[in-house]
TrEMBL record:
Pfam families reported for this sequence: BPD_transp_1
Organism: Nakamurella endophytica
Family according to the record: Belongs to the binding-protein-dependent transport system permease family.
Domain ABC transmembrane type-1: 25-223
Transmembrane segments: 29-49, 69-87, 93-112, 160-184, 204-223
InterPro entries: ABC_transp_perm/SBD (IPR051204), MetI-like (IPR000515), MetI-like_sf (IPR035906)
Entries under PROSITE patterns matching the protein: ABC_TM1 (PS50928)
Designated gene of the protein: proW
Protein name, as recorded: Glycine/betaine ABC transporter permease
Cellular localization per UniProt: Cell membrane; Membrane
GO CC annotation: plasma membrane
PANTHER family: GLYCINE BETAINE/L-PROLINE TRANSPORT SYSTEM PERMEASE PROTEIN PROW, POSSIBLE OSMOPROTECTANT (GLYCINE BETAINE_CARNITINE_CHOLINE_L-PROLINE) TRANSPORT INTEGRAL MEMBRANE PROTEIN ABC TRANSPORTER PROZ
């Protein structure tokens, strides 16, 4: 079985052409990227507004609960049946739209709920202190709430991306391409027996599954790396080097001397 997978994966002929593995990967990334991108445009600002104002929290709870019971494959088939009669000619829209709609419905809840939860997790005392300094509501959101909520928001984005990449595979069963295509093609070749065609189908099936898993892990690694290096060091407690840290005793000495370089990372603080 492993030999079948390796033989199929390393065969250059399986990677080239319109229906090759490279084309499948590009299609899969495109469909998944569109769904996650549109979901981010919808759910992120909505989650910010709900989390900042506290209004519409029941919408978040209801959306998340509904998404857990979403019959993805059944909904794809139903939408395909409803949409396809409205298109004529050679177009992929009857196949693309049902899949994109379902993927969008999957991607919105984790981004929405994590954005809302991230803002709600900010310490109220921090908000009050910011308002006490004269910050407006928009400034509190941008400079206080959003930086503190950012790790949780990124976690929601990563969760949405993984769900979408995994579920996009099912789109092959209604005629869409992507990495679900080799899996679907292999399962249509009948029972797996000790024949040459069965060994080829086994390799194709395992290769499709492997590439879906590898793509999901790669995207999650990229997003995790982005999260690591874009999260405020004040939130993570991570500093570039030990020289960024200032001991309390040194802070007192610098304050007594009237110096302003008291904070980690060279930040300026008013002299005492």
């Amino acid at each position: 079985m492993i030999g079948d997978w390796w033989s199929y994966l390393t065969d250059p002929d399986n990677w080239d052409g319109r229906n090759g593995l490279w084309a499948n990967i590009v299609e899969h990334v495109t469909y998944s990227g569109i769904a996650v991108g549109v979901a981010l445009l919808i759910a992120f600002p909505l989650g910010l507004w709900i989390g900042h104002t506290g209004r519409g929290a029941t919408l978040v709870v209801g959306t998340v609960n509904a998404s857990r019971a979403l019959p993805t494959f059944g909904l794809m088939v139903l939408l395909f049946i409803l949409i396809s009669p409205h298109f004529t000619g050679k177009t992929d829209l009857p196949y693309i739209l049902p899949v994109e709609i379902v993927l969008l419905l999957l991607a919105v809840p984790p981004i929405l709920s994590n954005t809302y939860a991230g803002l709600q997790s900010v310490d109220p005392a921090v908000r009050d202190a910011a308002r006490g300094m004269g910050m407006t509501g928009g400034q509190v959101l941008r400079q206080v709430e959003l930086p503190n909520a950012y790790p949780l928001i990124m976690s929601g984005l990563r969760s949405a991306a993984l769900q979408v990449i995994a579920t996009a595979t099912v789109g092959a069963y209604i005629g869409l391409g992507g990495l679900g295509a080799p899996i679907y093609d292999a399962t249509q070749q009948g029972p797996f027996q000790d024949t040459e065609s069965s060994h080829l189908a086994t390799g194709e099936l395992l290769t499709g599954a492997f590439l879906v898993a590898a793509l999901a892990l790669l995207i999650d690694l990229v997003l995790a790396t982005i999260q690591r290096y874009t999260t405020s060091r004040g939130i993570t407690g991570r500093y570039r080097s030990s020289s960024d840290l200032v001991a309390p005793s040194e802070v007192a000495v610098r304050a007594a001397e009237g110096r302003t370089d008291l904070a980690p990372g060279g930040q300026q603080v008013a002299a005492l």
